[in-house]
Amino acid sequence: LSRVSETLERDGLHRIHAFGLQSGGEAALFLMPSGGGKTTLTLGFLRLGAPWRLISEDSPFVDRKGRVHPFPLRIGVLGTQPPPFPAEHVTFIRRMEFEPKHLVSLAAFGDCLATGASLPRFLFVGRRSLGRNCTIRAVGKWTGWKALLEGMIVGVGLYQGLEFLLRTSLLDLLGLAGLGLSRTRAAWALLCRSEVHVVELGRDGAVNVETVRAFLAAKGFGAGGPGAGAQK
Q: What is the pLDDT of residues 106-153, one digit of tens each?
């Protein structure tokens, strides 16, 4: 993943630590910390099917114009209880330093995967609460910018090991400065195109999915039809 990311970043495509959802050529991104609920939301929307399509459960790419590109990977579900998918699509792994997880192949999701670039419309900053309910409220661009600074420009939560640990020369450091500027440009373009909201997820995953789904539907998310505006 580190080498793939490094290669694509040379072409102005930058990863963002977020769950990405597409509908009608538009994208909604959910920036959440590890363990913040991205996987639960992902599986919930995949079960709903059309018109929702998965951009990525963990790390979409954003270009310099702010457009969101799909980068779906196998979905990891923590715990020893197998997720409700056919056995041929699920692999169980035990890890030395982390709890075990099941990896769900993308083949399990059929045509629920995004295949082209999307224009960003919503940027959700995810938080957790101890209550059962899920709430969504509009916030200013500054809240979105702080989340992008952490989840895209710095890249907290993304595995970037080879990109940074092996750089020692002045030339390498100058290259990192250019990389930071490119990420900042892409993040700013994304922010300018997006409505920013804070979503507070409660303890009930089904309630979270239904609250977000109802919010997006009420906003007419994706109403422009498949591919609308994706090339602008």
A: 888 888 899 899 999 999 999 988 888 999 999 999 999 999 998 898
Tell me if 40 sits within 8 A of 52, measured CB to CB: no
* CB within 8 Å of 47: residues ≥ 6 apart: none
**Looking up tokens 């101890």, which residue turns up?**
130
Residues whose CB is less than 8 angstroms from the CB of residue 96 and which lie 6 or more positions away in sequence, other chains included: none
Which 8-state DSSP code applies to residue 25? T
Task: For residues 216 and 197, give the distance between their C-alpha atoms in angstroms, rounded to a whole number.
Answer: 12
Q: What is the pTM of this model?
A: 0.84
Distance in Å from the first CA to the final CA of the chain: 29
> Residue 19: in which H helix or E strand, if any?
strand 19-23
Ordered alpha helix ranges (H), the chain: 2-9, 38-48, 141-148, 161-165, 170-193, 205-218
Residues 6+ apart with CB under 8 A from 54: 20, 21, 22, 42, 45, 46, 70, 72, 109, 112, 113, 114
Cα gap 22→113, rounded to integer Å: 9
